[in-house]
Amino acid sequence: MADRAERARGRRRKGGIRDRSRSLFILLMLLPAVVALGIFMYYPIEETFHISLMRSNGLVTAAYTGLENYRLLFHNDEFRAGLAHVFLWAFWSVLIQLPLAFFVAFCLIIYRNKVTKPLRSIYYMANILPSTITAMLGIFIFSNTNGVLASFARLIHWNWMMKIDFLGSPSIAFWSVFFVATWMYLGFPIIYLMARIEQIPSEIREAAELDGAGGWRYARTIVIPMVSYSLRILAVLMIVGSLKLFDLPYLMTKGGPGDATKTLGIILYNQGFVNWQYGSAAAIGVVIFLLSLIFTIAQFSWQSGESE
Amino acid sequence: MSNQEHAPRLEGLPRHARLDVPALLATIVLVILALAVIVPMILPFFFVFKTRLEYSYNPWSLPKQIRWDNFTQAWKVIQIGRGMLNTLVVCAGAIVCTVPPAAMAGYIFARYRNRLTEVVFYIILAGYFVPVQMVLLPLYRMSVSFHLADTLPGLFLPMAAFGISFWTLIYRSFFKSLPGELAEAARMDGSGHPGTFFRVMLPLAGPATVLAVLLVFIGAWSDYLLSLIMINSQSLFTMQLRVAQFLNAYGVDYMPRYSAAAIISAAPTVILYIVGHRWIIRGTLAGALKG
User: Fold this and answer.
1) How far is CA A114 from the centre of its chain?
2) Does pTM surpass 0.95?
3) Shortest Cα distance from B274 to chain A (angstroms)?
4) Does the residue A207 lie in any domain?
5) For residue A16, is it within any domain?
6) For chain B, which end, N or C, has fewer CB atoms within 10 Å of the first or last residue's CB respectively?
7) What is the CB neighbour count within 10 angstroms for residue A230?
8) Which of A27, A39, A40 is best to mutate for the B interface (most B CBs within 10 A)?
């Protein structure tokens, strides 16, 4: 009996599974999750690798072609543009969104008062809007017919600004979409960093205050080193997020004008579901998967290197 | 409040007065940034009460009178009602297919640890890092051969599969945090393994379940990419597909009616967020900080 209770506690490894009802119970409890992931995730992953090695056109999957799809992909201008945009996006996300998020999170904690306290929930709010709505708000702002910016420029007769086509000009469209994405996604790094900064023991902060290290010196010498691990995690999340980017650029500009805002997600969608080029779409899927895998593994190796 | 907690400690120090200036500046900057988040969300309300004519003459003026025509028209023309029904089915399906499997698996990983379940745990955890983009193509082909293509289950089943990993993780840490004596006591009273789980432990995990239902609902409500791939027939279009379709077809020309559709389609998530923002943020962080 005592043995049974101990096993029910389940903390200790008890030399495998002995009584039958217990193992049956474990099996049945795990079954739905395992089956769901097996069918809708692991089998399709295997399929993606498989299809990416096939020459396929339309609905017919034809012969095995080895790495031909990948070779063609890396010679394809559209794909190279997409890859460049994804890395550019990741680069600027880390360079712009991360410091901005840290600034906001830090200020919200250091200068907490009646006004700033409820702001955390407001910053995160944009994150839960459906992306179709966010894209629409972006179009409201950047559209050159009656958009907020265009109307504003007309109002104060800024002709140079009226001439800017925020979504239609290849060199600017990327930044317009990036701006909207920053607006939408900044909430998460803010609440994440806030939670981390709050974990810093209050004695450390008080000691710093007594030493006269207020504000930015406190941030630079104590807070940033203490949350550097979280900053790196967020950087990885931003990079992986760029690899998966689809909704906002697709809804706002369809990846255009030209290839200006095409991402790997958009090219995959076009190849697979518009042009019916399964082979190359699957190859893009594999590229997205491998790149996110590399960055995720990097994240975990940092984690185990710095296990708290 | 917390400002006052620190105040006594600083009193008598000469730099107390100086500290207020950066605090004031920071507060102003933070408020401006918060406005930058809020104001765009208010934009549709400028248009939604106007006729098209009013809108094209003067998009940014305050509406002269409150008219609800755009809402009723959005309901009829964009068929928001139909879309909402489909979306609700998808949400319900996603919740039913995500939360119970995750709760069950999470319970096993928290309370029945052995070498085998540990291996299964890592297999399920790994799913958390799989980008859905990677498997879109085989998912679609599979759903064609299972006759799930262009059906609502064909949408919410893969959606659920992609949510299970995260919620298993959450349930696992929640069940771990519950005192083990409760389960033992139930077992002593003679309830079997299933009885202990369903009658004692699962009700205790109520907070995790509420959070899971809430966030799975928001996620399913907002989904765009999977819906775009899986649904082709107009009659099955979810709300987000309807909204996106309208945006593609008319651009900003029909802005008043479009704003009405957008407001209807964003309202549930925004209302849920306003009511439950503390929970939502805490839940999001619980997942991320464990990550």
Assistant:
1) 32
2) no
3) 9
4) yes
5) no
6) N
7) 20
8) A40
The tens digit of pLDDT for each residue in B82-131 reads: 888 999 999 999 999 999 999 999 999 988 888 888 899 999 988 888 88
Rounded Cα gap, residues A287 and A299, in angstroms: 18
**For the residues A199-221, what does the mean pLDDT come to?**
77
To the nearest whole angstrom, how far is the Cα of A286 from the nearest Cα of chain B?
6
> What ipTM was estimated for this complex?
0.82
Residue B134: which of A33, A36, A288 has the nearest Cβ? A288
**CATH code where residue A155 lies:** 1.10.3720.10
Which one of B9, B43, B136 has the shortest CB-CB distance to A140? Answer: B43
Examine residue A154 and state whether it is found in any structural domain, yes or no: yes
Please tell me which of the candidates B225, B273, B289 has its beta carbon nearest to residue A128: B273
Looking at residue A57, what DSSP letter applies?
E
- Write the pLDDT tens digit of every residue in B27-42: 889 999 999 999 888 8
A149, part of any domain: yes
User: Is residue A23 less than 8 Å (CB to CB) from chain B?
Assistant: no
The answer for residues whose C-beta is within 8 angstroms of residue A207's C-beta and 6 or more apart is none
Alpha helices of chain A — where are they, by DSSP H?
2-9, 20-37, 43-52, 68-74, 77-92, 98-110, 119-125, 131-142, 148-155, 159-162, 170-185, 187-198, 202-210, 215-218, 224-244, 247-253, 264-269, 278-305
Q: Residues 131..170 of A with a Cβ closer than 8 Å to B: which?
A: 131-133, 135-137, 139-141, 143, 145-148, 151
Which residues in A lie closer than 8 A to residue B30 (C-beta atoms)?
104, 107-108, 111, 115-116, 119
How large is the C-alpha radius of gyration of chain B?
25
Among the residue ranges A125-134, A234-243, B187-196, the one predicted with the least confidence is B187-196
Which residues 186-215 of B are in CB contact (within 8 Å) with A?
187-188, 192-194, 196-197
State the total domains in chain A. 1
